[in-house]
Amino acid sequence: MVEYEPVIGMEVHVELLTKSKMFCGCEVAFGGAPNTRCCPGCLGLPGGLPVVNEKAVELMTKAALALHCEIAPRTIFHRKNYFYPDLAKNYQVSQFDKPLGENGYVEILAGGKPKKIAVRRVHMEEDTGKLLHVEGNRSLVDFNRSGMALMEIVTMNPPPPGFDQIESAEEAREYLQRLRQILLYLEVSDCRMEEGSMRCEPNISIKPKGQTKLGTKTEIKNLNSFRAVYMGVDFELKRQEKVLREGGKVVQETRRWDDDRGVTASMRSKEHAEEYRYYPDPDLSPMLFDEEYVGRIQAQIPELPLDRLRRFMADYGIS
Amino acid sequence: MADKLYELTAHELSDMIQSRQVSARDVTQSFLDRIDAVDKSVKAYITTTPEAALAQAQAVDDAIGRGEAVGALAGIPGGIKDNVCTYGVLTTCASKMLTNFTPVYDATVAARLNNAGAVMTGKTNLDEFATGSSTENSACFTTHNPWNLKMVPGGSSGGSAAAVAADECAFALGTDTAGSVRQPASFCGVVGFKPTYGLVSRYGVTSLASSLDQVGPITKDVSDCAMVLNAIVGKDRLDGVTLDIEAKDFTKALAKDVAGLRIGVAAECFGPEIDADVEKAVRGAIDVLIGLGASSKEIALPHLRYGIQAYSIIAAVESSSTLARFDGVRFGVRSKHAGDATLMSEKTREEGFGLAVKQRLILGTHLLTGSCYDEYFIKAQKIRTLIIRDFEKAFEECDIIISPTCPTVAFEIGEYSDNPLAMRNADACTVHANLVGIPSISVPCGFKDGLPIGLQITGKHLDDETLLRVAYTYEQTTDWHKRKPQLI
Ligand SMILES: [Zn+2]
């Protein structure tokens, strides 16, 4: 019988612990009355313009360095174009081919053994508003979250030589927990999955063992806890294997995790590659990072949990 | 004199208000009466704000009465292009999309004028979302050229230029993306200035193409231009691309002195599209400056001829996303045929945007798709870089460059209705300053068939003062700026 091996990629979004939003002075807070924390910029009113929140850039640089990324000497923002009612400007300010950080890793312990999960990129972007569906087939939009600073961390599959990838539901959960621990330590984010300040969208495919060609992948949304991440990835791996064993084909799609029923269900097909028409945002100047800046941020990074553990083990001869 | 206050320049009025020869209220009333008398035929304003204007003027009079020091612009009536957000005052961008849009905030330029004590007479007409060169693309109505009502006033800031030319305000603000301040100023025989990119905040100005847009004054003479600049220029923490430079007093540049000035003249700026009489007037103006001690030199700007194409691509791309926010969700007119969210934005945009805007949006969206990005957008950016280098090189040999502002004088309303693309030629001489980000001014330099001709002076990055000095010197040596259209 064919044996399958999983390929798991992780796209993690975290909200940064900044006082104000990514591109305007509006206050960042959880909850509260809808549409009370917005301005012409984050509401996408005519004439609204973005101005970079330097604190957010600093926090992200710190996170990228702690994830062992190379910091780009020059980075720019792009406009990611798509229409959706919760996206105030109908484009999201994000990063495309010049992210802030690249080629890092997160160290995890897989069954007690250390693994370096390769991180392809760490980039900055702004959050969207929130849609609320109400009685009478109507929808309302709350823009309090619109424009909040988000950091996106994406793993690299396949990993470069000397690095690893996530290969099981346990490792997916472990990766996320380690990442959270680092970001909490750095005070970059409060990483509350239930409040949405840490969001994880794994993409999953399986392929016959030894085969280099990747299988068709699906993406899972609505994973609001570590438990859900574990269960969702595990379910999806088993579901895909069943489909293939029965001679079927995995459909490229986004699937929603249903926590009550413990299953993933199809949300939308992704057969057609989405075209976001990225291009450099002319309202924002390029950001330059010199060695002095990077050095200064690097110096702010405390000893990270795994490093401390290792030091204790060496210092006290614990194993 | 006092019975025709509206005929005076802003600096003349300023002197009279400050010395208490007239009240700000009388000045404002004079302009409001003038608007009542002539705007029926000129149609420069989309919205007038007479009550608020008189209240603002009264506040200036009260301050002067209390012996408080007021700024040079205090009590001076000005019009604002209707794509600049004004708190509590309808701001339509001349689009059906925004016929109900009353901003809850002031654009930085509007706030700065307000703080300087300027009086807002109203909001002036434009081509919808500043897309056009004649105001014929306005969803409201077409503005008429005060020099000949059958002619266009130019665009997109046509309402502002016509209002100043017709004495319906002492000064006005326009926005210039490819010549939208200078070209209408040229057509209407007034002064139009596009400052160095980043000198004036764009916050609250409905953007067309962010990397090209700049707010600029339209005035009766160069001194007024410097006065308005003083009020609006400066770093704005709400616009990240504004430059962090020290405050300047632009009126200090107003000296009659061009001795030793090196004028660059490029053959590329006098191509076959330039009307013979326009060329004659511009060359005559160069001779005037030479007569005052300047010298002229042939310079080469080899990539200029690709400017319009590069501009069209960049402007289309940038506006395709900048104008994406007009979807009926948060403000503006929402289509009544909105079944679901997708249909709502589709129908709102289908019904709300006019043809010229739609053409630009479709083009821009297409240019960002697939291989078009590299084939057109990246190429356009490269051309932009080449044009920037052309100017850098040219400015090693000269201090300013002189050309016509427009290839022709104002054309007839409807002349290009069958062939809107041909109208792009109207921007042929002006677009480069936007691509390069350098300052450029248009001042009157003659007439053809009773219609004004504009002289364009373009200068180095952040050397806005030299432009003002040269323009001032030319203006003070001639009297084109003193002529007025006969409206009634
Ligand atoms: Zn905001």
Describe the structure in your own words.
The complex is a heterodimer of chains A (319) and B (488). Chain A is an alpha+beta fold. Chain A has one domain. Chain A has five helices and 16 strands. Chain A has helices at 54-66, 169-185, 226-245, 291-299, 305-316, and strands at 4-15, 70-71, 74-75, 78-81, 91-94, 101-110, 113-126, 130-134, 138-142, 149-155, 198-208, 218-221, 253-258, 263-269, 279-280, 287-288. Chain B is of the alpha/beta class and 488 residues long. Chain B has 14 helices and eleven strands. Chain B has helices spanning 10-18, 24-42, 50-65, 108-115, 158-165, 182-188, 222-232, 276-291, 307-322, 341-352, 355-367, 372-394, 431-436, 464-477, and strands at residues 45-48, 77-81, 119-124, 171-176, 191-194, 214-219, 262-266, 295-299, 400-404, 440-448, 451-459. In chain B, helix 2 packs antiparallel against helix 3 (50-65). The relative contact order of chain B is 0.14. The model of chain B has no long low-confidence stretch (mean pLDDT 96). The chains are: A alpha+beta (319), B alpha/beta (488). Chains A and B meet through loops of A and helix 9 and helix 10 of B. The structure holds zinc ion. Zinc ion is lined by residues 21, 24, 26, 38-39, 41-42, 147 of chain A.
